[in-house]
Design goal:
By secondary structure, the protein is α+β, with helices and mostly antiparallel strands. 44% of the residues lie in helices and 15% in strands. β2 and β3 form a beta hairpin.
């Protein structure tokens, strides 16, 4: 998959071994001029973050106890569990403290926007765009700083 990513980023050619949903996302990322060498969610200001959280308070109140339960069950697995709004703004995170610190280095934290237009192909953005569960691993991510990670996401309908 790394060769397919390199070929697309360098030459704009899509190899056959790229899943169709990922290929479509890479094309959109390139068209939208997402920098494949950079990945960091755009942080909203504290006022905007508070407004987004307030607009989603019911969702947060229902989801957070479940998120914490899952987090406790997978403690030590170097994972982060996140809840976003329907645009991809991160509302809450929980999980392994080391993993959370690594995620924060990429602005994967409360108040950051993780749409594909912001950070390239990723599970959160893809799940929101396609309306179905997604898993993106390694170099399926459009942005190279995410190639060492795997992410899964599912929209809540």
């Amino acid at each position: 998959m790394t060769a397919a990513w390199e070929t697309f980023v360098m030459d704009g050619q899509m190899l056959d071994d790229v899943r169709p949903a990922v290929a479509s996302s890479w094309v959109r990322c390139a068209k939208n001029r997402v920098d494949p060498m950079n990945a960091a969610g755009r942080l909203a200001g504290e006022g905007m973050t508070s407004s987004i959280a307030q607009a989603n308070v019911s969702l947060i109140n229902i989801a957070l106890p479940m998120m914490e339960g899952v987090s406790n069950a997978i403690l030590g697995e170097r994972s982060v569990i996140a809840l976003t709004d329907n645009c991809g703004h991160i509302l809450e995170t929980t999980g392994d403290p080391t993993a959370i610190n690594r995620a924060c280095a990429l602005n994967f934290q409360r108040g950051a926007l993780w749409s594909c237009d912001e950070v390239g192909t990723n599970a959160v953005g893809m799940a929101l765009e396609l309306g179905c569960p997604m898993h993106i691993a390694g170099s399926e991510h459009f942005c190279k700083p995410l190639h060492g990670s795997a992410s899964s996401a599912s929209p809540i309908h």
